[in-house]
Amino acid sequence: MEHIAPWLQTSWDRRAAGNFIGGGTGSGLAMIAAASALWSGNLQRPPLAVAALAIAAGLALVWLEIGRPWRFLHVFFHPQTSWMTREALLAPPLLLALAAAAWTGDGVATAFAALLALAFLYSQARILRAAQGIPAWREPAIVPLMLATGFADGAGAFLALAAADTFVLVVAIAAIIARWFAWTTYRRRLGRNGAPIGALAALTAIDAPVLLLGTVAPLVLLVAALVLPRLAVPLALAAGLLALGSGWLVKGVIVTRAAFNQGFALPHLPRRRTAGEESSAPKGG
Amino acid sequence: MTRWVMVVDLDRCVGCQTCTAACKQANATPPDVQWRRVLDMETGAYPDVRRTFVPVGCMHCDDPPCMSVCPSTATRKRADGIVTIDYDLCIGCGYCIVACPYQARYRTDRANFAYGGSNPNEAEAKCFDERRLGVATKCTFCVDRIDAGIEQGLTPGVDPEATPACVNSCIAGALHFGDIERAESKVSVLLAKNHHCRMHEELGTGPRIYYLQD
Prior knowledge:
The structure holds two protein chains of two kinds.
Chain A: E1 2-4, H1 14-40, H2 45-65, H3 83-104, H4 107-129, H5 135-138, H6 142-161, H7 166-192, H8 197-204, H9 207-227, H10 232-256, E2 264-266
Antiparallel strand pairs in A: 1-2
Chain B: E1 4-9, H1 18-27, E2 37-45, E3 48-56, H2 65-69, E4 75-77, E5 83-85, H3 95-99, E6 106-107, H4 122-127, E7 136-137, H5 143-151, H6 165-169, E8 175-179, H7 186-193, E9 196-197, E10 209-212
Parallel strand pairs in B: 1-10
Antiparallel strand pairs in B: 1-8, 2-3, 4-5, 6-7, 9-10
């Protein structure tokens, strides 16, 4: 294969990354809050309000990035195939459901918000998956990674915002472990599928922080919080912030630093003939 | 059913960039925007080093990823296979730019001119299209020329008035354009008689620029 080396795309920058960070955190937080309420019977409203704010902030960042912001309503025109349209269609009812749940504490609104949040998070994952021009995004393993990161971010945010019970601590542990498996699977598949060297290098550069600060440290803190109930609040807070920060780091790097295109490549290039050589191929026509 | 394709004879291209210049002139693209560009590929290792010039641009794919991701339906595909952008619908989200495996799309947010920066000269001002700011743009296969030519009874790929500017301008006869569904068209004959390949075929996009191999 003859090729011209890949280079980093610049069309989607930190503002786009902000949408995936805000949207993932907000939707994950909404689901964790709903699950916690279902388990304990005690709905904590502030996390729902923060979830709505995080999602809205992410969408606002995207709005700041588009070239024709006052045409934003056109984003709703293509639900047949565009995951960006689907994400946009889910956002208004999701934000309304979150606002209603945070305002009234209504269980139905909370459950509805959690379902919409799951669909919203999945749409975000599929947005990246559909970007055929970027090998680090089109890799199918990006979908479970984005889902697991959303759950871990949401659990981390919940631990930082609300009084966590045993259920949330266990869910957070599961989410962080799931994210680690999704991360390692994603990186292994990218390497196996010949992703650009620059993309692999960008991801390798954060491997240690994701493992140590984003996985091992919060897991240790969470287990300690389970074992030492008197220290559970500060331990859960620290674990939550670490889980959240590492999740944001993963998304930020994937969107802005690992986003190399695949360059140009042809399976075969002609060998230029020298004087006296005959072409073997009939050109005709 | 008509299906327009481009055929590039890599053995003939000399990398003169005349097609690039012709495209820029015909479509009035701003600096740093090249709907038709020619890659200079240097491959191999001394003493077996090869240099090949590879014209690239929008491949007008059979299954264009840019179209399926577009949230506004600004990117569409005509019955003849040409992929178009409706500048009045596009929101400039850039999703099509990252979805295109051929780096064929551009977005320019501010007016910029080759002569004078933000102040165009008379010729540039005449060609300037404000609708192209903040939206995605790309090669159209000179669709306006094709449509106007067909209306006059001309044949794209045969009659220069109905043929993309880059093809008309090629000094080496490396670029060919025509209807692949017509067996007697030049592109069909070239593809029938020569080995050929397409770029990033493994992605399944069905690019419609074919490269002849030796």
